[in-house]
Amino acid sequence: MLNVTVVSPEKTLFAGQVDSVFVPGKKGKFEILQNHAPIVSILTEGIVRCVGSETFEIAIKAGFVEVSNNEVSVCIEV
Q: Which GO terms describe its molecular function (predicted)?
């Protein structure tokens, strides 16, 4: 499982455990799964989707994602 936090400048939009996270990276969309290599990536306009027992999905304008030790932090502009 991944521990995911999705925040905007105003508030936390989602926090929970999921199986995967799909993000619109600057060089293309990619999926984050358990034990993903550590990464920091710029996000472009698109959809962030967190999939687990329930799905969280949000359209974004920009942002960044940081992944380390099954912790995923997504900071977005909506």
A: proton-transporting ATP synthase activity, rotational mechanism
